[in-house]
Structure prediction request, 674 residues.
Amino acid sequence: MPTDVILWILGGLILISAVMSLALRNLIHCALFLMVCFLGLAGLYLHLNAVFSGLVQALVYVGAVGIILIFAILLTEGGGTETGSHLGSQWRTGIGLAVLLAFALLGAVSNSPQTTQAARHTEEPTVREIGLKLMTDYLLPLQTIGLLLTAAAIGAVVLAMQEPKPRKDETP
Amino acid sequence: MTFYLALSVLLFCVGLAGVLARRHAIMALIGIELMLNAANINFIAFWRHSSAADDLSGMFWMIFSVAIAAAEAAVGLALVILVFRHRRSVRLDELESLKG
Amino acid sequence: MEPLKGLLSTLWKALTDQPDPKAPFLESIPEDYRSLASAVLSVAPILMVFPLLFALTTVLERKGLGRIQNRLGPNRVGPAGFLQFAADGLKTLTKEDVVPRAADRVVHFLAPIALVIPVLLTFAVLPFGRNLAPIDLDAGLLFFFAVSSATELAVFMAGWASRNKYSLLGALRAVAQMVSYEIPLVLAALSVVMITGTLSLSAIAAAQSPTPGSFLAPWYVFTPWGLMGFLLFMIAACAEANRSPFDLPEGESEIIAGYYLEYSGFKFALFFLGEYLGLFASSGLAITLFLGGWNAPFAFMQGWLPSWVWFFAKLATLIAVFIWIRGTLPRVRMDQLMGLAWKFMIPMTLLTLVAAGLWHRLPSAPLRWVACTALLAGAFLVLGRVLMPRTRHGRRVYRYAD
Prediction:
């Protein structure tokens, strides 16, 4: 069935690029693979008929998070390859823990009775429906998110703002 | 359904492994982003398989979670830049001045 | 023979504004291939028309700039120099493809592709005529912005992978500029969304069709908030496309050519193509949002020409304006660029949203005209005078060599 093939390809793309984005030495390569992973996820959502979510994913993650990630990398490491070991001192413990958790969760998922439910929402909700729900049922979360985003934006600017330098000859 | 949940579990664990194993603060943030995205897969999958007819809550949770992830990335990266400016390093195991 | 007749019939229906132009061709071919053929029918015209328009625009731009600068421009190849694009295309195709030794080869190779593909994808949701929208997506506007945000990443990839300080500086300038101007671009488009209540670009274009009894078509540019939104949108689109006066990322006098400095041959041509296609796409979006899409300006003209002719006439006009601006205005400085985006454009677009809300709420015609105009004009004056740094210009002194 073609939909299954698409799902497996997207899933493989997401997982491989996720692994690559954490395994490579060069930080910019990591960030670019992360973008591939996000685009794969956006494709997965589009494939699941969640068009609005998929587009939001592409817009926010690739357009915003990716760009600030890259700026942060360039402002700290200068975009080069990391010097020295790129793994922490306890990396074996960390990866072991993650693998253990993966097995535990996979076991739980495969035994869960929830997973046998058939897909009900195969039709995409219209943007109008989403907008009306956002403005009625989900108004409080929306306002809270707006407040949070404003606070985060101001906080990020305040944190990253350069302190005024006493030297006069330097142009801002 | 099992496919999405398994994908989400694997993505989460990849992110967790990255957070625990890498030394660089930005890599830890990338790992956290992956873990958040694993949660988003679950939201969309459960929205698609939920029993209520006009229930869009999974989708809204996903959209709100994306917004929170964006805020988290902005503040986190600003902190990373601040730490770099003070210490010229963002290696997580070199930031140990609070250690007794 | 049957498919050929179907194809001709499809072409005729598309050119004469009839509903469902794809149907005759799709009915003439076997059932299994119909979805594929439908996709090809949507994609092929875009891939044919817009690169050709790009080729013509490069010649016309050089000729127009030449006239503005009191010279002739290209006039050797073909009749009146109009085949210059073919000569240039052949030149770029046959040139050696140079990749710097230190460059990151894979990323360097992928960057031009990553630039052109999203730009081409944005054309998928633009309604070129009454029945000529390639995909009528419910969230069309969101699709446009989501896809076009990926071009920033491509620009960065190009600048970073070249391992050249000028490339990297150009890429960082370009990304900072595109991120800053994307906010006013989206906010200006939002005012139209607020009035129409839909994100579908076909529905937005259809909402601006003239009613039979009226004289002037209800284009949004003919309202105070729409005019302000349109101007802000065009300024932001100009900056998004890295066009003069916002072409700092490729300022020749400072950083040579910016992010595509280390590209030659066909890859360079792809950057050039991507930049112009991006300009066409954002002009097309501006036409759809503010200039009535495929509608005629006056109600009595509505049936005179096929709808796509109006669209392309408006597109040609906007391109001419862009060429004119490029020939007229000098390049701005980096701090002026950022100041304009954050201190002027964003507050103005937010106030345009408020004005659009007022327009929607206030019932009577003269009151809302006065209220919206007063709000926007007042804001324009206040922002222009207070927020912008007041520069003291001394008397201009001409000095000549003795």
